[in-house]
Write a structure and sequence with these properties.
With 910 residues, the protein is an alpha+beta fold. It is built from 30 helices and 21 strands. Strands 1, 2, 3, 4, 5, 6, 7, 8, 9, 10, 11 and 12 form a 12-stranded mixed beta sheet that branches. The chain has a 9-stranded mixed beta sheet with strand order 17-18-16-19-15-14-20-13-21. The chain starts with 7 loop residues before the first helix and ends in a 7-residue tail after the last helix.
Length: 910
């Protein structure tokens, strides 16, 4: 009979199906998160670039290629160069000159012929605001019917289908706005006496399909007439005149040769859907090639030697690139931290499996199994579970986040799968490279660390210190590189290595005097807690790295929120602001005070037209009630001051003549006037005499660097009536405030102003990724703690069983496990708090959050810096303690239910 050998992989999976399912879930989840990260980055960077291009005016983002007729051509050749077919050939040549990855939206692109100068019209029926004749710009764009809707009349045509430089009568269409402003209608005739007089008959009124699109941005006056000022001598009033646009038929372009200078133009609109943040450098190169590189040379060869290309797209790309460059390193810090904790968890899962199978693998080695063969078998059984799970996680990420690159997500999922597959084989190969008769004691530490371990730890310390120093000197956004992104992680690594070496020492010192205590629970717990090994490095590394990243992430999000909140407070002056140019109604304060959430309403009268008599410079003056205004300034933190210093002196009022009022001023105004008395002419013609007694950088009523604040009761009667109301409260209802204010004034809310600072998907996307990375790191850290406790669970269960046979009660068993977990969990929690705080303080000088907070490099509140967030430090620490104690208590309870017989089996090495 032939013996049948059961396959290794199938046997192992059937023997431990629970472990296989747990590994599959862990790998699938980690692969999904790892693959989702680069795809999320792609999505929000692409959205940010598209928004930047779409928000910019179409005449800025478009590429305008223009070429005048070549000099020296005869009349017939010049006319032929302006006809539709040569222009269409030129359009194809221009499109061919555009290099990838810049893609042109051909539907919104346009080309044609237009006059470079406007021509005055002697028609008296055209509006003349200051007596100057209206002027007209002539253009013959292609595809007018595809980009405009005919409202009345018909589109222009050319009699006979062909025009030349001798043609004097033409037809044109005008936009609805042009017709309304310049009093035109279908059938109107406009005479244009240029080099050769033209007579243009308006045959139709059109409505642009997309007025703000690229087609209508070649010359804005073709869409909307412009009121311009004629140049004149300085100081003299400049008369105004209208400039409008007349849209000719494409075949009429040669008729412009005899009337005004003309150019051929090709306006290329970029396709927003084809813009990707990863192609930023290629886009900049493609634009530069068109403006002054190989693309322009091809235009000279195929279109005209006089061809020229201009665009503002390069400026848009530069601004976007600066914003992305400032935000990217901050996201890399969060990603590196979460990735490190996830990698530690995968390694711990492999280590846990290796520890559980230590006896089995030692037996196989003793029976002749080679290290290579043993590692190969373990790799095969792990790959059977991990590879499908990694593919599943990748598939979920692809479905959840469509529209991004596949390759980075694929590599991320492959890396996760590879770590999961190799963790167990490598751990087993390292532990069983020599055949051993019996294992050493696993809960004891070596008296001295090996030289290799010492060198490795010193190397990590040097790398961490170097990364922190580089970050402090150069900043996270100045191209410091990968080590800087890993700096918070390396700080956590240093703390983990130091803690593993240090914390057993005081526990061992306390174990001897603890023997004098009554009972065996306390001394036994201290003795067991003081025995540690290198296996505790990974759990501590995961915990402290998660602590550091959580503290750093909380500091980033807190610093961003603080910067936005402070900037919004400076802009509004309180939680809400109601402002008008003229005086507000007298009963408005009472109505607003009854709105939901409003606690206080403070009145202020701001005179923006107050001037100094000597130089006539405007200087905003706020008249307030000192008591209420001082309370408001104190609540908001905007230039708090004692109310008594600003109160008018006795007898100073509207009829007090030359009485001097005390004033609060900004530093710039205080430096200008000093402590002398000076006069200020108010908008109503009155005069106030002031002396600066207080200097503050900010004040709620006036936004800016120049302001004066005085007691309104000391101003002349009727001066600076209340036109600003400053509201404080919680959860203010914008709708209720606007209904109460009506048309009396404009309502501005601090919350709305704060939301307006999130101006780009780059900002919101980076914040979401950062929050997700911190949450993922915290989850994996908790999982690492559970794996650490699970690795020693059999040993603790066997210990409780033995102690129960010697008389230990269940309550004492619970206390033993809880007391044993506290000496490890408590130092880890305290070290995590200290590490997170130190990382924030060390890295704060090199981190500038201004761009991610305000979407610009300048902020009204100055540089936005990291700040320590107490919740980010306290919550993880408490969670670690609760989790460690809870798991210990749960294990003690479960072991008590199973009984001692189930744990004490003959031949069990636990």
């Amino acid at each position: 009979m032939t013996p049948v050998t059961a396959p290794w992989v199938r046997t192992r999976l059937r023997a431990a199906p629970g472990a296989a399912v747990a590994l599959a879930v862990l790998v699938a989840l980690t692969a999904c998160l790892a693959a989702a990260f680069p795809r999320a980055l792609d999505r929000y960077t692409d959205a940010g670039l598209r928004q930047a291009v779409e928000r910019a005016p179409a005449d800025v983002t478009g590429v305008l290629v223009s070429a005048a007729p070549a000099p020296g051509l005869d009349v017939a050749a010049a006319e032929d160069s302006l006809r539709p077919r040569p222009l269409a050939d030129g359009h194809r040549s221009v499109l061919d000159a555009v290099e990838r990855p810049l893609v042109v939206d051909e539907e919104q692109s346009s080309y044609g012929v237009r006059a470079t100068d406007s021509l005055p019209s002697p028609e008296e029926w055209l509006p003349r605001p200051d007596g100057l004749p209206a002027e007209m710009v002539l253009a013959a764009p292609q595809g007018l019917g595809d980009h405009a809707r005919l409202r009345s009349g018909r589109l222009p045509r050319v009699a006979g289908g062909r025009a030349g430089s001798s043609t004097t009568e033409l037809e044109a269409a005008v936009t609805e706005e042009t017709a309304r402003t310049l009093h035109m209608r279908a059938g109107s005739v406009v005479r244009l006496p240029g080099h050769r007089e033209l007579t243009v008959r308006v045959t139709g009124i059109v409505v642009p399909e997309r007025p703000d699109g690229a087609y209508w941005s070649v010359d804005p006056v073709l869409r909307s007439p412009s009121l311009r000022r004629a140049p004149g001598p300085p100081g003299a009033p400049a008369p105004t005149y209208w400039v409008g646009g007349l849209l000719l038929a494409p075949e009429a372009a040669p008729a412009l040769l005899g009337s005004a200078p003309v150019i051929r133009y090709w306006h290329l609109a970029p396709d927003p859907d084809a813009l990707h943040g990863r192609d930023l450098d290629g886009l900049a190169s493609a634009v530069a090639a068109l403006e002054s590189g190989p693309g322009l040379q091809r235009l000279h060869a195929t279109v005209s030697p006089l061809a020229d290309a201009t665009t503002g797209l390069d400026d848009v790309l530069t601004t976007y690139g600066r914003l992305r460059g400032d935000i990217g390193p901050l996201v890399a810090v969060a990603a590196s931290g979460a990735g490190t904790v996830a990698a530690v968890v995968l390694l711990m899962a492999g280590g846990l499996a290796g520890d559980r199978r230590r006896a089995e693998l030692a037996l196989l080695r003793a029976r002749g199994a080679s290290v290579r063969g043993l590692a190969g078998r373990l790799l095969a059984e792990t790959a059977v579970v991990a590879v499908p799970a990694g593919a599943l996680g990748l598939g979920v990420a692809l479905l959840a986040l469509p529209g991004a690159r596949l390759l980075p997500a694929l590599w991320a999922a492959v890396a996760v799968t590879a770590v999961a597959c190799l963790a167990l084989p490598l751990r087993a190969a390292a532990a069983h490279h020599r055949v051993r008769v019996h294992d050493d004691r696993r809960d004891a530490a070596s008296p001295r660390a090996s030289r290799r371990r010492t060198v490795a730890e010193l190397t990590v310390v040097v790398l961490a210190l170097g990364a922190v120093e580089v970050l402090r000197r150069r900043g996270a956004t100045d191209g410091a590189g990968g080590p800087v992104a890993m700096a918070p992680v390396l700080v956590g690594v240093i703390a983990a290595l130091v803690l593993v070496r240090v914390y057993p020492l005081p526990l061992r010192g306390l174990a001897r005097p603890a023997r004098r205590l009554r009972g065996a629970v306390g001394p036994l717990a201290l003795a067991r807690a003081g025995r540690t090994s290198a296996s505790t490095v990974l759990p501590l590394l995961a915990l402290l790295t998660a602590f550091t990243v959580a503290a750093f992430g909380g500091s980033v999000l807190g610093g961003v929120a603080d910067a936005r909140d402070r900037a919004a407070l400076l802009a509004v002056g309180a939680d809400a602001r109601v402002e008008a140019v003229e005086a507000l109604p007298s009963g408005l304060s009472a109505r607003l005070g009854e709105a939901p959430g409003v606690r206080e309403v403070t009145e202020a009268g701001v005179d923006y037209l107050a001037k100094t008599p000597d130089d006539g410079q405007s200087l905003p003056l706020a008249g307030v009630a000192p008591g209420a205004y001082a309370a408001l300034a104190g609540r908001t933190g905007l230039g708090a001051f004692p109310a008594g210093r600003l109160t008018r002196p006795d007898g100073a009022g509207g009829d007090s003549g030359n009485a001097v009022l005390p004033a609060l001023a900004s530093p710039a105004v205080a430096e200008r006037f000093g402590d002398r008395a000076f006069r200020l002419r108010l908008a109503d013609g009155g005069v106030a005499t002031l002396r600066i007694v207080l200097v503050r950088d900010r004040t709620p009523a006036v936004y800016g660097d120049d302001f004066l604040v005085v007691d309104r009761a000391g101003l002349p009667a009727g001066a600076a009536p209340p036109n600003v109301l400053l509201l404080t409260g919680d959860d203010l209802d914008a709708g209720a405030l606007r209904r109460a204010a009506g048309d009396a004034g404009a309502v501005h809310l601090r919350s709305e102003e704060r939301d307006s600072y999130v101006d780009s998907p780059l900002q919101s996307g980076a914040e979401r990724v950062y929050t997700a990375a911190v949450a993922a790191g915290a989850g994996y850290a908790a999982l690492a703690l559970l794996l650490s406790l699970a690795s020693t669970a059999p040993e603790r269960a066997a210990l409780l069983a033995r102690l129960r046979t010697m008389g230990l009660t269940r309550a004492q068993g619970r206390r033993l496990l809880v007391l044993e977990s506290l000496p490890q969990a408590l130092p880890a929690a305290l070290s995590g708090v200290l590490t997170g705080w130190a990382a924030v303080r060390l890295l704060s000088p090199g981190i500038d959050l201004t761009t991610i907070a305000m979407s610009t490099t300048a902020s009204p509140v100055g540089r936005a810096e990291l700040r320590t967030d107490p919740w980010s430090l306290a919550v993880p620490a408490v969670a670690v303690l609760v989790l460690a104690v809870g798991v210990a208590a749960l294990q003690a309870w479960w072991s008590g239910r199973r009984g001692a017989v189930a744990e004490l089996r003959a031949g069990d090495a636990r």
